[in-house]
Design goal:
Elements lengths: L12 E10 L2 E11 L4 E5 L6 H8 L7 E6 L2 E2 L4 H5 L2 E5 L10 H11 L4 H14 L15 H13 L5 E5 L7 H16 L3 E6 L2 H7 L2 E6 L2 E6 L1 H6 L4 E6 L3 H11 L4 E4 L5 E6 L2 H14 L6 E5 L3 H9 L36
Parallel strand pairs: 3-8, 3-9, 6-7, 7-8
Antiparallel strand pairs: 1-2, 1-4, 4-5, 9-10, 11-13, 11-14, 12-13
Helix pairs in contact: 3-4, 3-5, 5-6
The structure holds adenosine-5'-diphosphate and magnesium ion (MG).
Length: 350
Amino acid sequence: MTNPMSSGSDPVIRVEGLVKHFGDVVALDGIDLQVERGTVFGLLGPNGAGKTTAVRILTTILSADAGHATVLGIDVARDPQAVRERIGLAGQYAAVDENLTGRENLRLIGQLTHLPKSTYVPRADQLLEQFGLTHAADRPARTYSGGMRRRLDLGAALVHRPPVLFLDEPTTGLDPASRNDLWVVIQELVADGTTVLLTTQYLEEADRLADLIAVIDGGKKIAQGTAPELKATMGATIVEITMATPEAAVQARGRLQPVGVVEADYDGRTLRVNIGEGARGVLDVARVLEEADLVPDAFTVREPTLDDVFLQLTGHRTDEPGDHPTPDPGDHPTPDAGPDVPATSEEGAA
Ligand SMILES: Nc1ncnc2c1ncn2[C@@H]1O[C@H](COP(=O)(O)OP(=O)(O)O)[C@@H](O)[C@H]1O
Ligand SMILES: [Mg+2]
C-alpha cells in the first residue's frame, strides 16, 4: 500500500515520551524511539520490560497515558483506523483460528480487511507458498506445529500488504530450526521494503535482524545502538569461571581485575571476565589462575549473550519464566515478570 501521508525521510515510527501505567505498575516510563523507513528496529528486553505494551499502543490496541506516537506520520491516538489500515501485527500469541485451515485463515483476513476476492484468493496462495505452508494449506491450523503456526500468523498479518509490520516476540518458544526459518522470512520481507519493529528477548535475534536495537527494562530505554555497538560494550569474548567456593572466587576476582572487567554472579562462585580479544585474553585468564594456584571447577569461553548485556547495564539478570528464580538484589523497582501479558483476545483482531 502506498502512503501519501508521509514523505521520504520522516521516521516511519516516532515515539516521544510514551508512558503507560497499569494500576501501580509503570509499564512504560517515558520511552522515545524512531524507526527509519526500510529498517528493522529491535526492542530488546526481558519479560515485563514493557515491549508488548509499546507494541499495543503503536498498533492502537491500547492508549497511552502520556506521550505521543505516530506511524507513517499518523497519530495513533487521533486516527487509529488509518494506522490500522497500514500496519500488520504478528507475534508470540498466534491469532490464527485453530479450526480453519491455513488457506481459510488467510482468506478470512482478506475478507475482514475488505479486499476484493480476486485479490485475496491468489494472495493467500502466494503467502502459503512463500512461507512453506502449501503442503498444509488445507489442514486445520490446530494440526500445525508451533513454527508453522507462527508462519501462518505472520502470513495473516501480511494479507493486506502493510508497509509497516510489528512483530512481538515472533520466535519465543520456537525450536532453533523454526526460529531460523522465520528469520529468513522476515529478512525477505525487509528486503522487499517493509519497515519492521520487532520485540525480542534474544540478543541473537536482534543481532541477526535488527539494524538498530533499543534495550528496555522496567519501561525505560537503557541503551541503544547497533548489535556490534552493544556487544562492544561487553568486550568481544567472555570467560566464565566457576570456583569451588565463594572464598576462592573472591581471590580469583582480585587476581583477574587487570585482565578484564570481572563480574560476579549471584551464586557467589561464578565470575565472568569480559576480555577484549579472544585468544590472548583467554590465555591471560588461565595463566593468572594457574599462577595463583586457583583451579576452577568450570572454565568456559563464549560470546556475550543478552544476559551479559543485561547484567552489565542493569545489574540484574534477564529472567525468563520457568528459568532460574532470581534472588532480587532489592534495588530494582520492576516487579517480577510473573506471567507475561494476560491473554488477550483483541491482540490479533486487527
Ligand atoms: N493488561 C495489563 N494489566 C496489568 N498489568 C499489565 C498489563 N499488561 C502488562 N502489564 C504489566 O506491565 C509490565 C510490562 O508488561 P509487558 O509490556 O507485557 O512486558 P513485555 O512484553 O516486555 O514482557 C509488566 O509488569 C506487566 O505485568
Ligand atoms: Mg511481551
